[in-house]
Write a structure and sequence with these properties.
Layout lengths: L2 E5 L2 E4 L4 E8 L8 E6 L6 E6 L5 E3 L7 E6 L4 E6 L8 E7 L4 E2 L2 E2 L5 E6 L1
Parallel strand pairs: 2-12
Antiparallel strand pairs: 1-3, 3-8, 4-5, 4-9, 5-6, 7-8, 9-12, 10-11
């Protein structure tokens, strides 16, 4: 059974840090390209960071040098360390594969975790 559970969000002041974690179940994890996405109110979901099975990572320009993605294949977790947060980082954050997991013919997304950055 496929499941993605994100946690670690919260309210933080600008300049602060948060550490998001994603726990994945299913046999797909270790062989898949994993990513963190976010969706702000009224905006489309965007990918902010991704990591390949070998550990190579990529970042959106907006988060480069502030966010770090990592993975632990044994624990089936993906972590997003977010430093120097800005109000524009406020969004619901999701993890998923690239491309997104498909369950029952539709994209599967977890519940996400809310990140709110106050100025």
């Amino acid at each position: 059974q496929v499941q993605l559970v994100e946690s670690g969000g919260g309210l933080v002041q600008a300049g602060g840090s948060l550490r998001l974690s994603c726990a994945a179940s299913g046999t797909f994890f270790s062989v898949n390209h994993m990513a963190w996405y976010r969706q702000a109110p009224g905006k489309q979901r965007e990918r902010v960071a991704d990591i390949l099975p070998g550990g190579n990572a990529n970042y959106a320009d907006s988060v480069k040098d502030r966010f770090t993605i990592s993975r632990d294949d044994a624990r089936r977790t993906v972590v997003l360390q977010m430093n120097n947060l800005r109000p524009e980082d406020t969004a619901v954050y999701y993890c998923n594969t690239i491309p997104a997991l498909r369950v029952g013919g539709a994209d599967y997304w977890g519940q996400g975790t809310q990140v709110t950055v106050s100025s």
